[in-house]
Amino acid sequence: MTRLRMGVVGGSIAGCAMAVAGARAGAEVSVYERSTGELRGRGLGIVLPPSLHRELTAVGYLDAAMPTAPVATRVWVTRAAGSRSAREFARQSGPVTACNWGLLWQALRRSAGSSPAVRYQRGHPVVSVGRAETGRAVVRTEGGAEEYDVVVGADGHRSLTRGLLAPDLRPSPAGYAVWRGTLPMSALAGHRRPLELLRESWVTLGFRGGHGIFYLIPRGDTEGDGVRDHLLAYAIYARPCGPGAPDVAYVRQIAEQHFPAEWAEIVARGEHTAMTCHPVTDLHAPVAADPPFLLAGDAAGVTRPHTASGAVKALQDALCLERSLRASGSPAEALGRYARERTPEGARLVELGRRIGRAQVERTPDWDALDQAGVEEWCRATLAGTTSYLYGDEGGG
Ligand SMILES: Cc1cc2nc3c(=O)[nH]c(=O)nc-3n(C[C@H](O)[C@H](O)[C@H](O)COP(=O)(O)OP(=O)(O)OC[C@H]3O[C@@H](n4cnc5c(N)ncnc54)[C@H](O)[C@@H]3O)c2cc1C
């Protein structure tokens, strides 16, 4: 198929990746992004499976020069019973390529921008998406309407495009929240053991009623590979303490109450940059494509963030679209292939996110009683036969 016309609503991670996929498969692509500026500050830290990062770099979606902070191991830590010291109670193989969300977006944006087949229009909010009498898709903006053979909804968790495929879908609340931010490396000064751990691993810190995830990411504003060029990214899952409270002060309160002393001090220090808090929810569109419409990234489904799979899924969606377009004789055939592959994967990840959430937030174990064998057994039970790259299975999404 050549000269297929593809419209993409949303120009973030999923939108840029889908634009690259479409252009590589021979389509002419128009991306509509409502934001006027760079999407630099969103999302903070993000991890990808190393194999996916390698594949995207090898085929040209990502630039090999994009700074990353790969680590191979996951370390489990908690506060030792009756003391404020840290107890490292398990260590697992868990290779991840840690990235800065802003740098990942910039790399995909550059890749899309380098193709003459892609027109990226920022400051272009789409007001509606619909079906023309010809059967093609129509994208309307304040500037007018354009018809496409395929329209990709890459417009995030509140997707307007998804309304066409699943009008009644609503997010399911998990009943707890995630606080996500970054800290400067100076917060780790004087804390030798946490720094040593973070240089080689990502850390899960378990506490009663939740857990925190900590890992280093490259800074967004500098190039380079030295430790000073990193930030400490965190995501802390716990029940919200009430309206108005979810801020840095509340994160510090959680840390003071539950973390080992040195980790509480790290969280207490330094400016928390780009800090966000939001209720954890999930949703999953019952079908990932219905020609001429197709959903990608968070528009297709949002998992609880424990699976670290939102951006991963968006990137895999793009690889799948490219493969499907190349292998098909018509847009409808390509979208059918895409839906058959991506719909069940979205459902699998939502279910996995729920199981991890139940195990690690809703019904936390007695962390102090866990040891290496206990963690292995507990993780196996949580995964319940499915796979995740976070648990050492590189093939798992
Ligand atoms: C705590 C936390 C940790 C996470 N960690 C990871 C991780 O480690 N690994 C991972 O893979 N994922 C992770 N994620 C998920 C990941 O950040 C998201 O899934 C991903 O960024 C979604 O990208 P997207 O392009 O689908 O959506 P978005 O980034 O939301 O982009 C949607 C875009 O569409 C635009 N838009 C919306 N409506 C319109 C319109 N009408 N017209 C034009 N434009 C429009 C918006 O402006 C926006 O730019 C995490 C998420 C959270 C909350």
| Secondary-structure element string | EHEEHEEHEEEEEHEHEEEHHEEEEHHH
Number of separate structural domains: 2
CATH architecture of the largest domain: 3-Layer(bba) Sandwich
- Quickly name the level 1 CATH class of the largest domain: Alpha Beta
**Tertiary shape:** elongated
Which parts are unreliable, with pLDDT below 50 for 5 consecutive residues or more?
A: 223-227
CATH superfamily of the largest domain: FAD/NAD(P)-binding domain
What small molecules accompany the polymer chains? flavin-adenine dinucleotide
Per DSSP, what share of the residues sits in E-state strands of 2 or more residues? 25-35%
Mean pLDDT: 93
Question: Which structural class matches the secondary elements?
Answer: alpha/beta
State the distance separating the first and last CA atoms: 29 Å
As laid out across the biggest beta sheet, the strand order is 3-5-4-12-13-14-11-15-18
Q: What count of helical segments does DSSP give?
A: 10
Helical fraction: 25-40%
Give the radius of gyration: 21 Å
